[in-house]
Design brief:
Two copies of one chain form a homodimer. With 197 residues, the first copy, chain A, is mainly alpha-helical. Chain A folds into two domains: 1-57, Arc Repressor Mutant, subunit A, CATH 1.10.10; 66-197, Tetracycline Repressor, domain 2 (Orthogonal Bundle). Chain A has nine helices and no strands. Chain A has helices at 2-31, 38-45, 49-55, 59-83, 88-105, 107-114, 120-147, 155-175, 180-194. In chain A, helix 6 crosses helix 8. The longest helix of chain A is centred in the first third of the chain and has 30 residues, at 2-31. Chain A is elongated. Chain A starts with a helix and ends with a helix. In chain A, 41% of the residues are buried. The model of chain A has no long low-confidence stretch (mean pLDDT 95). Chains A, B: It holds the Pfam family TetR_N. Chains A, B: Residues 14-74 form the HTH tetR-type domain. Chains A, B: Residues 37-56 bind DNA.
């Protein structure tokens, strides 16, 4: 009986943790990381501030977890877009397009993930995930170079450059609402030309 | 007499402030912003910690000032390189090359300015100065589009993409020591191709 109660308690805690995290992601999606306060979260999930801290040790840890969770979803979408095509140019285009389209669909979240001034702990995660994005593009570029579809280049360099180009160039358009289609098409062209596709 | 003494005091304070700032920049150049502690600074300039705080209200303000001061020097070098050429492609190439060459010459400083996880206040300044870099490239690209030297594109978009590409793609090579010439040439090619030059 004691054992089953413990399991139940753990399950409940895990559910509660997921609920807090979901609520935290919504706060960031709407108002960026600056809107993610323990107080706002406590109000949202009907908990005391002290109780929230029992689930997430501190604000930094919570921010990092929200950042990771949201970014992994974006990364997965880009990975699937890239892997869904066999042609090198189409793969690159799909990756760029999905990244940009998703950013326009959730502009505040995209800005928060890409560039909002935040705690250094989130900055650390940004560096990590930018490398993860770069590896997706690197694989395609390396294949293109190996097969002669793309000109000689350092695939890791071009890939990182594409990730930087995507992140930086979307900030203005996200803030000023586009023009979405022109921006996305422009970015696709920029990236394809850049690698010689 | 009182007036002249005040002037002298002000001069002395201003000199002292410059000395602290110079020392702070050296700390960042050698070990990044994480090496910039008020204690290290106090040791360097032979002052008490409390005295340092009389010149710079807090650590954030000091970090931001060091960031700005260093970045403005870099920005000026890139601006001069771009303005030193009349041909569009040569202008863009000079800007990219000077940015990258200077980064390789002071790799820790470059990493600290571009990407080291830091206080949000420095992140704010990063956004500001990235836009300043972008405006330099935007001007050249817009001229190229207007004269028909470059294909139609949104100059602000391509310019921001170049700045993002430069910043992101240099991080790996700066950390792993190159290969400098190959990386710089690769970046120049990436950026020129990207804008259709």
């Amino acid at each position: 009986m004691a054992y089953r109660e413990t399991t139940k308690v753990l399950e409940k805690k895990s559910q509660m943790r997921s609920e807090i995290l979901r609520s935290a992601e919504t706060l960031v999606r709407v108002g960026g990381f600056k809107a993610l306060t323990i107080q706002a979260l406590a109000n949202d999930v009907n908990m005391s501030v002290g109780n929230i801290y029992r689930y997430f040790g501190n604000k930094d840890a919570l921010s990092v977890e929200v950042f990771r969770h949201s970014t992994e979803r974006e990364l997965l979408a880009v990975a699937q877009a890239i892997q869904g095509k066999t042609d090198i140019s189409q793969s690159l285009e799909a990756g760029v397009r999905v990244f940009a389209e998703r950013a326009f669909r959730a502009p505040v979240l995209a800005w928060a993930l890409i560039a909002e001034p935040v705690e250094p702990a989130v900055d650390e995660s940004r560096l990590f995930y930018r490398e993860a994005y770069a590896r997706l593009f690197e694989k395609v570029i390396a294949e293109g170079v190996a097969s002669g579809t793309l000109p000689q280049q350092i695939p890791a360099l071009s890939a990182a450059a594409i990730v930087g180009a995507l992140a930086e160039s979307l900030l203005g358009p996200l803030e000023h609402n586009g023009p979405e289609q022109e921006v996305i098409d422009g970015l696709v062209l920029f990236c394809l030309r850049a690698v010689g596709a």
